[in-house]
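A common beginner's mistake is to predict each chain separately and then try to dock the pieces by hand. The better habit, illustrated here, is to supply every component at once so that their relative placement is modeled jointly.
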Amino acid sequence: DQQVKQNSPSLSVQEGRISILNCDYTNSMFDYFLWYKKYPAEGPTFLISISSIKDKNEDGRFTVFLNKSAKHLSLHIVPSQPGDSAVYFCAALSGGYQKVTFGTGTKLQVIP
Amino acid sequence: DGGITQSPKYLFRKEGQNVTLSCEQNLNHDAMYWYRQDPGQGLRLIYYSQIVNDFQKGDIAEGYSVSREKKESFPLTVTSAQKNPTAFYLCASRRKTAYSNQPQHFGDGTRLSIL
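With all components supplied together, the output reads:
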């Protein structure tokens, strides 16, 4: 049972435009969410996070939006750069924060 | 520099053999994790440990074993009981705080292949 879903396995965006990566979850107990970026043959690196008490968190070109009623979060990258080309995973935590549940990932390609 | 070291980067195993993947961290993190990545399936949790000499099964623990004898080390053994061991294995660690919402830090992974 996939509790965190990224329904788009891939996304292509022109350099300079906005990239929007989406993530849906089913477990209403999740109260903290993270986005990771992963290059091939490397481990994921933490990008940005958001607590369920907020609906937006911004860090430079990256903004994460959370819609709790829809159980949906999204990552916006503006402007997109070729170096942003990677696989992006969303992840969710619930009380106790012992286990992290990852989505299946979205491969972003930014075209120069 | 602090970080997580996984070794080796590539590992080959003959069928029926056990193999151990190494994971060492010098971040002084209490919690450590093992994940498996397969194409189209994201990261799936194999085992995790919150403290030395204690660990819990994740979602896909069958065919795997771990130990946590030292805070810095969390080796994963892929046993012959694991029917489909070919995958990319990732180790992670996390600092436990009062709020416990610290992100995980990942190693660069070990790719295991069956000969």
